[in-house]
Structures
1.
Amino acid sequence: MEIRRILIVPAFVICGIVAAQTLLSEQAWAGEATPQDVISEMRKLVEEIENEKTAPMQKAIAEGKVATRKTKLAAMSAPAIDEIIKTVRGEKSAALRMHLLIALSMVKNRALLSAIHVTDLVRIAGDKSFPVRYWALKNLATARNAQGVLDRRAVPVLAQSLQSEDMFIVRLAIEAFAATKTKSAAEKIRPLLKHKLALIRIDAVTALKEIGGAADVRFIAPLLHAPDPIVRAAAVDAVERLTDKKFGITPDDDEEAIKKKIDDWIKANPLPK
């Protein structure tokens, strides 16, 4: 039984990702520009978008232009990173800060984020603007050292994010730790199996299925009797993966049949206390 990770993202994240991946044909704007030039252009465009007097069509065009500039900025890699961080730290416009952090998240070589950059991002993750906080954390979640390991400076703020009241922040932190595939990451995720939100419990189970081991089965086991069928199915899927023992549940099984097969499995495979 395979459970796909349920994906729910806030509107501003969807807009950010779609815009970041949208390349409109602006052949006239294709010269050699510096990061400062691109950011200056973005600032003007964001001001145009936020201006109440700007017509809807003009706003749509400006948003498309912002998308191309984010892509251009990300392609500059190392030269752009310093300028992005510097601007975000001193910029008043939350919208521009968000767009710059989205551009930063598009830089492919994550090892280019230095210790100073990561330290700055940790500070930015405390921004009063939620979209800015989210994208700062998104960048921290993918900050890697030269060996491809999650930067240790990002770990405390991401661990703290697991306790956030915001579902999207928690899910982002789970994804970040799951990507490390380490024993310590599994230990940080386990408490979320008791989270009040079903989506978080599902994410936690799914993460442990990928990075956990036999020792995690006893933590997942209570969810085999979860009243929510999706949570229960995720738990079954994870336990099957971690124990390599199938429950024998089929798509044709009704609720009673599923419960009986789970009970029979537990009787045949006593779980550790």
2.
Amino acid sequence: MSQSRTGSEDDRALKSRTMRYLWTLGYYVRKNVPLTETWDRSEHTDIDVLGVKVDEEFDSAFVVCDCKSGASNSTKTRLFWLSGVMKYFGAPRGIFVRSQVLGTKYIELANSLGISPLSEGQLIELEKAYGVDPNNLVGPFNKEQAKGETVLMELKEHNKPLYDYLRVKYWEDPPHQQILSLFSKAKKLNEASEDGRDSSNFHLAYILSLLSLSVLRLSRGILTVNPPQREEVASLSLLGGRIGYLERTELLEGFYDFMTQELQTRYRAKYPVSKKEFVENVVPTFSKYLADLMVRLCQNPRVAKALPRAMEHLAYDVILSGQSSGLKVIQTEYPGTSKEQIVNTVKDYWAFVERSGLANPYIAHAMDKAIAELDS
């Protein structure tokens, strides 16, 4: 006699199916995304499934999903909560997934809030309509997803600030701030992880996957810029645009003048670097490599939009699960692109990672091997 699954197991299965469905539609997906306490003080603290799709114009659209298997008396409350989370993320769409069909009054309420109510049976029909392969278990919903969650929880024990940023605060920041924060945190992670443990490699691969999504979204700002000006605009976009750059420069110049006067007055000494050298530090050293990558992505945006999900494949299926790399599951979801084009985009991104000093020897070996397998 088979043992029945618990409600939590059914919830996990429903979340995985929702992730797979959204993945088939081109979304980059995450499960159980916590919300900060300052935003929401109710009992509902996690987004069951969060998806973001970047189109060929590098515009991004979020979708927020609430997935529960059992019956609940709080359907109305959950719908309003989901509507609030959608507004917070600027998500034009929410999905409310339940095992059974909702009553008419709840369906009408959901539709008025921009939420699509789906029963498990309706989800099955959508899977058939979109040709969702039930065996296509890749990236964050692959067979080793529980292992991935365990490895991330290890990070919470050893480096809670990094864990909190990756799981929570990352989604609250604009793309340029995401990039600056991820760079800083990846550097510190590399300094603290010198033993080449598999968990450390996955932590870094997880960061690099998120970073690729941020870079793609930031590239939206230069896609329509004249090619000769793209590199300059890309560098400035990392600082929030030209206005942000000027504000930071003015702040540094003021600080430099203050310190110079203090040193002269108190110690009759000169500041050890010139104002020009001091102010140049407002632009991160990796910005020139980032600008070069963004320009390359803009040369073929239809292919470039596959990058974040290709990095998810490498992070979860190769680094975490130890599978052989292959982009067939990615390529088939981007008609009109070739495997070679997607591989070249991954190579461009990895070259940027290495030139920027984000790759430690251990993950570099694993990624070089995986990318070589992509070519075969």
3.
Amino acid sequence: MSHEQEQKQWVPEICYEESDEGITSHIPFIDVPLNLEMPKILFIFETRETGEFEPGPDGDPMPIVDLDLHQYADMNTLRDQLAPHLYDLVRQSLGLEPLAEAIPAGQKLTQNIRNKLGVSEPIKPQPTQFHPDLLASIQKELEEMAAEDAKSKE
């Protein structure tokens, strides 16, 4: 079986730690086999009881349940494949800050955790990298603003 076929047939299992002291801190995790990759999208059904009942297989009342299919995309895939301004729109539509604001906040949070754990080395800030399309767009806007400014001074 090819890697691609094996990846398509693999059914990831969402797991939760039983202890509050676990390494994932209440965040679910998927144990990915060495030869496979984390799925780029997960499909998860939401089930919700309607409050109504129907006879079950044994004749006892069984709740009627509505199903609603949700899709969860890997944010790293979106970050790597979308232009930065589109990725920021996706982040903002999910209630997240734009990446340029979130990175320093995340680094500060990580440093606070490291301080509490007694790790003395500070995190070195990484330079913010921008997608070439975004840089070209900003450059074009700056040139247009400069041209309008020069026109208004004439």
